[in-house]
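[job 0412] stage=complex_fold ligand=aspartic acid status=START
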Amino acid sequence: MNSTKTPSVLIIYTGGTIGMVQNPATGALQPFDFAHILKQVPELKSFGYRLDTITFNPIVDSSNASPAFWVKLVKIIKEKYNEYDGFVILHGTDTMAYSASALSFMLRNQSKPVIFTGSQLPIGQLRTDGKENLITAIEIAAASQNNQALVPEVCIFFENQLFRGNRTTKYNAEHFDAFQSDNYPRLAKAGINIKYNYSVIHYPTHQSVLQIYTKLDANVAVLKIFPGITKNIVEAILNTKNLKALVLETFGSGNAPTNTWFVYLLKKATKKGIIILNVTQCSAGSVEMGLYETSVPLLEAGVISGYDSTTEAAITKLMFLLGNKTSRQEIVDCLNQSISGEITV
Ligand code: ASP
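[job 0412] stage=complex_fold status=DONE, emitting structure tokens
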């Protein structure tokens, strides 16, 4: 911890269960005013930090998250960047992994923590997981040593675990431990102490000014293949007007049907310039095209490996690259690299 100055954290409440309290009269859940957060979570006072809050107006159920919503978030972070040591984003859990992935691409030269958290039960409910999540997320956002943030990354903190945001997926709609990161170790674990896994945290090699990228191109789609998928479906998706990139969710290590029509349609699409990125439907492991006969035709059709990417990271990376790179080759080169720690190449 920095002993010389009071740590400061900006809490941005975007919406979601965590900010809800029960109306005692009606029993209905309603958002509470985050300006009064210390009344709701008085434990926060014992940190002695400077804590400020911003509440989105209107608040957003995370099912309504969108590129415009991510742009609003990164603009707030940019505007307030020099005023705070770290940022906590309170967000619905449903699409938190998409938002954390998107921000990991849109914020460049990041040297301060941006920690997403939320909860499965409203903060105003007796057994809430929201208080623990919020308190620890704030502690992580403020943590530093020798003026260097301990976790200068976009992360998700949930149920005692800190994950790299663009490696994370919501996998449980009910349990408190709702997120997992199967292809990358967690960055920290909160127990009696918070144990940071320093060797897997990314630290900037030099200090430079935060840059934000606000152009995203949402002309992308995801196609999860399944046994029996018909030509009509694949054709309809690939012929979608303005489609620029497709995340193809394949079987196992990147395998797909070898039907002539399927491979022909993919090849036709890549020839037209559509980028097709292969990610696995499995929650862990990597695409390895060419390992089985059933993935060789994909390679020949010009499909690009998504390595061990989550679908959330793949789709938001494509939006980011399509919005910011001018040539197809540049995009393909970036897809074959980790640009924010999102894949293991
Ligand atoms: N529907 C809510 C949301 O994602 C659920 C939650 O907050 O976890 O916004």
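The chain has two domains: 8-212, 220-335.
[job 0412] exit 0
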